[in-house]
């Protein structure tokens, strides 16, 4: 893996909030001496160009676009979401747009820029420029490349949801010496065959749209299929009215909602990006026995993409490995299924606060593993 130091930075000139001192010990510090954050900025964005050796496509040059909130010297937390998430996790004075996880990142939240230096990036392939298979392990290597350029030797925690949890497990297995702990929410060590079948049909919808010279229609239809896999019958039963006849045709209660989801998504994604990142989920394969950092796993009973049985299997394999602490499994109930990490704000907040408050021990002591119903 080689690096090209093309490094562009954009930041705010607003004064940063007074930050707490580092809560790392001397051996657990986050070094960001090469971070180009201007003095007085409350958030910054940048872009670097790196050459990555992709597992299924050889060496490729890719752009990594990142965003950072929080002061230098604070414990570094890397935050990653699903394939439609991006580097903008939550609003700041510099970048006031809402972001994809403002309920968990921000002042007073579990991941608070007054106490943590929050790093995030756009997934490799998210810009549609890379039309090649992308392994989740390639994303983990890209994060290492980014941390190297930023001069961050070790991150306190990797918090990943959905695809981000999968990449977090890859990061822990491949680069565990650079990681304090992992929180994996609704993502495990493999792609379940049922979930892969859902995604294969979504990719066919995108391909059908391309054949019809209507990329947006294909993307929109794929997104609608995806929404059905993220959510649950229980939510739709409680939320939507029965079918009715409108202008001579039957229209079901959820169609307006699904059309809205399709329109929003098709305007901000590309067919290539969707195809390649969807494929990447299906390439997930991690040997949990290789993970040697503390792991918190969060599963949702109603999640049809990541069955609870797979979360149990992951925890059992982690327990049989060489982790310095017993893994923790939190089990939630939610009508929002796979999207619970976005919707069950109080439960996720409690879990994240607990995980971030726990110290990263280097000895062989073990904390009793427990399944926690939040």
From TrEMBL:
Coiled coil: none annotated. The keyword Transferase applies. Its EC number is 2.3.1.46. GO terms for biological process: homoserine metabolic process; methionine biosynthetic process. InterPro entries: AB_hydrolase_1, AB_hydrolase_fold, HAT_MetX-like. Pfam families: Abhydrolase_1. It comes from the Bacteria. Residues 89-344 form the AB hydrolase-1 domain. Transmembrane segments: none annotated. Keywords: Acyltransferase, Transferase. GO terms for molecular function: homoserine O-acetyltransferase activity; homoserine O-succinyltransferase activity. This is Homoserine O-succinyltransferase. It comes from Marilutibacter alkalisoli.
